[in-house]
Amino acid sequence: MRVALSWVIETLRARMGDAIDEEMRDVLAVLGKAGQPCPKCGSAISEVTRDRRATHFCRTCQPG
To answer: Three-state SS string across 4-53, please?
Structure first.
């Protein structure tokens, strides 16, 4: 997870400078795609929510 988040932050900074809080998240392959197939392995994307915030991930590609 740390590697993936670091990669996304670096990618967003390269594309947007320090304005990474803007809503440009097309580099996140599974964001908002709960129940759809993972683009890497085809397993269903899972969603976990807390305090009205959702996290999406593939349980096969991102175990633990």
So the answer is: HHHHHHHHHHHHHCCCCCCCCCCCCCCCCCCCCECCCCCCEEEEEEECCE
